[in-house]
Structure formats: structure tokens, C-alpha cells
Design a protein that fits this description.
The protein has about 200 residues and is mainly alpha-helical. The protein contains ten helices and no strands.
Length: about 200
């Protein structure tokens, strides 16, 4: 067998193992719930070792949500806000972050994930540590951005650091709402529409 054929075979084996892990994880969470499913359970169902599992996914939460990339660093969020200065900075952040949490239909794994998230929407942000990390990074990024661009502040009577703290809580709520819309509704609202909708709701 030539080198190119070997590479093709190895790649197919990798894809097969990854899909087996994803399928096992999603099926088990649907059957037993998130807390009732362990990495060991997933490995047993997928017929892989724990080492193989962690070669593909950093955690149980990653395989369940389908989010395997690390959360962006504050510098990346600042750069994105700088690049889209014509938009409300909250909308820029929500667009960037919710892209990682949005589930789209179209294949077997996506359909299983849709089914799971409709049943357990709380899994969009799984774990207090994940949520705290999102808020920490967003707070740092917004604080840095507003210090450099005080004209973009939306809270005139407060400091940039205070607004950054409020913004981090707002962003996580907006990302949750928008991501859940992708699961429950065929035409989810845009980041701007979601922000205005929540503002209207909270003003009543």
C-alpha cells in the first residue's frame, strides 16, 4: 500500500473514531442526562480508550456541545470590536461568540445535537467554570476597548470598568437567547434584534 493510501486510511479511521465518540456521547446524554453520563461511559459505548477520547475532545462538555475550540482570548475580542466599529460592540461580541454555540441541521450528529439541546437547552453553557471564563474574558475585552474608545460607552454615569462588568453579563444572556433561538425557531433573530427584544422586555 502506498503512502498516500495509508494517509487516506488513517484519516478515515480518525473520522470514524471521532463520529463514534460523538454519537455515543449524544445518545447517552439523551438516555441518561448530562450528569448521568461519564467519559468512561462514552468510551465504552464508542469502543475507544480514554486516551483516544482526549485526542479528539478536551472534555465531556466539548463533545456534547460540539464546541472543541478554545474560547477566544480578550485580544481577539478587542480586535473584532475594532474591526467592526460601525456596530454596537455588544452585537459584535454576540455574533462572534454565538457562532461557536449555534447548532445547524444537516447531518446525523447535528440532528442528535438538536434533539438533545431542545430537551436540555441549559447545556449551551455547561458548567459554572465555562460561564465564569466567558464573563472574565468579555469583561477584560470590553474594558480594554472602552478605555481606548470612551465615545463608545453606553453608560455615561459609570466607568468603563463598571460598564464592562455589566456588558459581560449582558453578552452571556444574549448569546444564550440567540443560540436557543437557532434550536427552537427556523428564523432566529439577529444579534441586534435579540438585544433590542431583551431591552424592550426588560423595560416593561
Amino acid at each position: 500500500m502506498d503512502e498516500q493510501a495509508c494517509l487516506g486510511l488513517r484519516e478515515r479511521k480518525k473520522i470514524k473514531a471521532r463520529l463514534a465518540i460523538e454519537r455515543a456521547a449524544l445518545e447517552l446524554v439523551l438516555e441518561r442526562g448530562y450528569d448521568g453520563t461519564t467519559v468512561e461511559d462514552i468510551c465504552e459505548r464508542a469502543e475507544v480508550s480514554k486516551k483516544t477520547f482526549f485526542n479528539y475532545f478536551p472534555s465531556k462538555a466539548a463533545v456534547v456541545t460540539g464546541r472543541v475550540s478554545e474560547f477566544p482570548e480578550a485580544e481577539q475580542l478587542v480586535a473584532m470590536m475594532e474591526a467592526h466599529s460601525e456596530m454596537c460592540y455588544l452585537d459584535v461580541l454576540v455574533n462572534m461568540i454565538s457562532a461557536d454555540y449555534t447548532v445547524r441541521e444537516g447531518d446525523e450528529m447535528a440532528d442528535l445535537r438538536f434533539k438533545m439541546l431542545r430537551k436540555m437547552p441549559q447545556l449551551f453553557f455547561r458548567g459554572q467554570r465555562d460561564l465564569l471564563n466567558v464573563q472574565r474574558v468579555v469583561t477584560e475585552a470590553v474594558g480594554t476597548y472602552l478605555e481606548a474608545h470612551p465615545e463608545r460607552c453606553m453608560m455615561d454615569d459609570h466607568s468603563a470598568s463598571y460598564e464592562a462588568l455589566v456588558a459581560s453579563s449582558a453578552v452571556t444572556a444574549l448569546v444564550r437567547t440567540r443560540s436557543m433561538q437557532h434550536v427552537f425557531y427556523e428564523e432566529p433573530a439577529s444579534a441586534e434584534e435579540t438585544r433590542r427584544m431583551l431591552a424592550e422586555y426588560l423595560s416593561r
